[in-house]
Design a protein that fits this description.
With about 140 residues, the protein is of the alpha+beta class. Helix content is about 35%, strand content about 20%. It is built from five helices and six strands. Helix 1 crosses helix 2. This is Fur family ferric uptake transcriptional regulator.
């Protein structure tokens, strides 16, 4: 498992360190997006700044993407295989459950391409559907 995690980091030109491997393992074990605060709780003895820098490094290198789900704290989730976080082709819908407060990536549901005026250059887009997830509805 550690070898696979190291390889995943190296593929994204991220130097594998103990903390980066631990954070990647934690993210890989998540079914939903996770906030910095949630990650901090999972790593009690870890420094918040180190965790934040790790997430930023992962984001800058296309390993994770951040989600603004309207809760005031960005959430982070691993990118799909082959994702380059490219605004033209890699953006997908997210779902935020109002009951359990979990945020889910829905990679099969792509955000449609939005044609901007000629002098505009899109850098980021976010589509969050809010409601009740299947776990909470049932």
């Amino acid at each position: 498992m550690i070898k696979e995690l190291e390889d995943k980091l190296k593929q994204k030109d991220i130097r594998p360190t103990a903390m980066r491997l631990l954070v990647l393992e934690a993210l890989a074990g998540q079914e939903t997006a996770i906030s910095l605060s949630d990650l901090e709780k999972a790593f009690e003895k870890s420094d918040r700044v180190t965790l934040f820098r790790t997430l930023k490094t992962f984001q800058e290198n296309g390993l994770v993407h951040s989600i603004d789900d309207g809760t005031g704290a960005p959430k982070y989730a691993l990118c799909e295989e082959g994702c380059e976080c490219n605004i033209e082709r890699d953006l997908h819908v997210h779902f935020h459950c109002r009951v359990c407060s979990e945020t889910f990536c829905l990679p099969k549901y792509k955000i449609p391409e939005i044609e901007l005026p000629s002098m505009f250059k899109g850098e980021e887009a976010n589509l969050v559907v809010k409601g009740i997830c299947g776990k909470c509805a049932g």
